[in-house]
Amino acid sequence: MNTDIRQRMKALKCGILIPTYNNSGTIATVASEALAYCEDVWVVNDGSTDNTNELLGAIEGLHLLGYEQNVGKGNALKTGFKAMVDAGMQYALTIDADGQHKWEDLPLLVAQAEAHPHSLICGTRNVKTQEGMPGKNSFANQFSNFWFKVETGIDFPDTQCGYRIYPIARLAKKHFFGTKYEFELEVLVRSSWAGVELIDQPVHVYYPPAEERVSHFRPFQDFSRISVLNTILVTIAFLWIKPRDFFRKISWANIKKKIDENLIHNPDSSSRIAAAAGLGVMFGILPLWGFQMALVFAIAHFLKLNKVIALIFSNISIPPCLPFILWGSYALGGVLTGSGKSLPDIHDITLDNVWNDTLQYVVGSIALAIAASIIVGLLVFCLISLKRKLGNSSKATE
Fold first, then answer.
1. 25-34, 86-95, 167-176, 251-260: least confidently modelled range
2. What's the CA angle centered on 18, arms 14 and 19, to 5 degrees?
3. So what's the pLDDT on residue 163?
4. Are 83 and 193 in contact (CB under 8 A)?
5. How big, in percent rounded to 5, are the helix, strand and coil portions of the chain?
6. What Rg do the C-alpha atoms of the chain give, in angstroms?
7. What distance in Å separates the CA atoms of residue 171 and residue 192, rounded to the nearest whole number?
């Protein structure tokens, strides 16, 4: 009986959660050992077809939950989380049922939870040196880590390890969509978006020989599910999360700092700074709603232009400028297409008129975007050049 760690977990209101599916060779040992470290242990039998139920029924002190049919690890974890929150738990330590995780690492994870309240503590493996790790697991982890960084901007060492402490009381009101292995990635990404701190704690993992290993990971199906999830998360990240975070950081002090760093004291030439500003203005006006910032970022990166400047100037299309941009695009389009209209006729709505008005607006917005980008680029070039000239003159005088 590990009295010290049991007391610490009780003080944290942290229980242990073990999802299992056809792990009859190890589940009894893992569940019994869990009770030695914590008095509150939940096991979710995810529709096992072996003798898991009989093995678990013979162990006193477990909270047993289960499904008649297999519904996936994500659903099993969510079921366990709900039961634990209902029982008054604040945290859930999850551990795999196959015996790969080491109990010697449990105090390290608990210490991190004590030092970082309400954070999500993640066990992390060294996938480069981990002995016995299957090649498909290593690839899946690197694949997941890459997309996690794209979605959150965080370089995290291991987004796939199931040895974690979740702040379930803090996450209780969130609805997660993942039902299988992809759930563990989704909860990391969305927790990060919600401001939950992610703490990594190196842990040891044992991988038995291939002939003894029990794995329910299906390369094609599970990679497909993870890929679909990443597509959705990347779209949300670029259309909502990154713009949201950008505007949250806007303040006069931050604006002055960004102007100073990216304009006044930027090491780039005046022409490259002007090009970045012009690029931002162009894509801010073009009718590419929802994709403007993502496209500006990608093109600025490709052209090796200052991405911060390009993103700042792309926000020309936010209020109060937007009505003037819409009207200017339509009116300029009227001149270029020969319609002569400066406003659409809302009293004569036909398919032909809608098409003609849309075409007029698109043509005008492209022309306005090009003209505005050139004008703004020239203005920025002149202002930066003048500022730098005056700065150099004052230094020479001193």
1. 251-260
2. 135
3. 97
4. no
5. 60, 10, 30
6. 28
7. 11
Reduce the DSSP state of residue 66 to 3 states and report it: strand
Task: Report the C-alpha gap between 308 and 273 in whole angstroms.
Answer: 10
pLDDT at 341 over 70: yes
Q: Which two tokens stand for residue 342?
A: 């400066």
**pLDDT tens digits, residue range 347-380?**
777 788 888 889 999 999 999 999 999 999 999 9
* Cα gap 294→300, rounded to integer Å: 10
Tell which phi-psi region holds residue 168, choosing left (phi > 0), alpha (psi between -120 and 50) or beta. alpha
- Alpha helices, DSSP H only, in the chain? 3-12, 27-37, 52-57, 73-86, 106-115, 135-152, 168-171, 182-193, 219-236, 242-248, 252-259, 270-285, 292-303, 307-314, 322-337, 351-397
- Give CA separation, 317 vs 103, 193, 345, in Å: 55, 25, 24
Split at pLDDT 50, 70, 90, the class of 198 is very high
Kind of pairing, strands 62-67 and 198-202? unpaired
Identify the pLDDT of residue 137.
Answer: 57
Task: Dig out the tokens for 373 from the structure.
Answer: 């980008």
Q: By the 8 A CB rule, do 42 and 86 touch?
A: no
Q: Which residue has the higher pLDDT, 359 or 208?
A: 359
Q: At what angle do helices 219-236 and 182-193 cross, to 10 degrees?
A: 10
Question: Angle formed by the axes of helices 3-12 and 27-37, to 10°?
Answer: 80
Q: Is pTM, for the whole model, over 0.70? A: no
Structure tokens at 234: 């990347």
Q: From residue 46, how far is each of 212, 327, 391 by CA, in Å?
A: 21, 59, 70
Query: Cα(292)–Cα(317) distance, rounded to whole angstroms?
Result: 10
Q: How far apart are CA 71 and CA 209, in angstroms?
A: 27
Query: Quick one: tokens of 82?
Result: 């709900």
Mean pLDDT of 199-225: 71
